[in-house]
Structure formats: structure tokens, C-alpha cells
Design brief:
Layout: E1 2-5, E2 9-11, H1 15-22, H2 26-31, E3 41-42, E4 46-51, E5 54-64, E6 68-73, E7 80-89, E8 92-104, H3 108-133, H4 143-154
Antiparallel strand pairs: 1-8, 2-8, 3-4, 4-5, 5-6, 6-7, 7-8
Length: 158
């Protein structure tokens, strides 16, 4: 297994608020633009999608309330696992130190194709979440998608 760890980002939300946005896999489906929802299905514990002809599924393995969510593959072309970490910031209880960990069993060809992009993608998720929590537009996201993402992640008052 090859392991990847994202950068840490300080998100302007309490750990329980951020955790609750990620705890239900259906939330991810609701954040997708309408034109991307075809072929994507979700339930509380899992989400599946067909991407470039490959069916990829993710399932929640374990939830540790307000601090960590562990995921595993569920019908993917390779084995993987990951975790989302929601750590309290001791100096500011209104913020969360957020990061991602990801492990993948990639063959040589897959490692060459996607291996270098995984760390960048993890870092981009962290950067986007930090930006959204501060009311900034994440890079590469249009305003309507951002509105839906913020509403889903942080409630409709933001």
C-alpha cells in the first residue's frame, strides 16, 4: 500500500460542525452539479460512481464522533482506504485542524497514471474546505456549486 497524507488546514468551524457535513455519504451526492450526478448513487454509509468507465465505490468503515471518519473501497478497481481527521484547535474552539490520510494498493501502471495526483487532490480538498469556511471561492468551483457545498457543509445560514 502506498500512503499519502494531505497538508493540514485550519477550518473556521467547530469539529462537530465539520464532522456532521461528512458523516452522511448522501451529502456528497447533493453537492454535485446536476450534470455530474448521472451514474452516482449514495446511501448513508456508501457512495458509488462510474468514472471514465471504472466503477468506484467508497464505504464508511468506522465513525468516531466529531474526530475521525474512516473509509474503505467498495467495488473499486484497486484496494484503498482513508480517513478524515477533525481535530480541535486548542487555542480556538471555533476552528478545526483538518487533514486527510489515504492508502492505495496501486499496480505500477496505476501508480504512474494517478499516484502523483493523489497528494495534490488531497491538498486541494483541504484548501477548498478552508476557503469555503472563510467565505472565499475555492479554485475551480463556480458560485452555484459553492453555494450548494457551503449550504450542505455548514448550513443555510452561511
Amino acid at each position: 500500500m502506498t500512503e499519502y497524507t494531505s497538508k493540514h488546514g485550519i477550518v473556521s468551524k467547530q469539529p462537530f460542525e465539520l464532522y456532521m457535513a461528512f458523516v452522511d455519504m448522501r451529502n456528497f451526492l447533493q453537492m454535485l452539479p446536476e450534470d455530474k450526478k448521472q451514474g452516482v448513487e449514495a446511501d448513508y454509509d456508501w457512495i458509488t460512481a462510474t468514472v471514465q468507465g471504472f466503477k468506484i465505490g467508497v464505504m464508511v468503515k468506522e465513525r468516531t464522533p466529531y474526530s475521525k471518519i474512516e473509509i474503505i473501497d467498495n467495488g473499486a478497481p484497486f484496494k484503498f482506504s482513508g480517513s478524515l481527521h477533525f481535530d480541535a484547535v486548542p487555542s480556538d474552539p471555533g476552528k478545526t485542524d483538518f487533514h486527510l490520510e489515504f492508502s492505495a494498493d496501486l499496480n505500477f501502471m496505476m501508480k504512474m497514471l494517478v499516484g502523483g495526483k493523489i497528494k495534490d487532490a488531497l491538498d486541494k480538498v483541504v484548501d477548498s474546505l478552508v476557503a469555503m469556511s472563510e467565505g472565499r471561492m475555492p479554485e475551480g468551483v463556480d458560485e452555484e456549486t459553492l453555494r450548494k457545498m457551503k449550504e450542505q457543509a455548514f448550513g443555510s445560514q452561511n
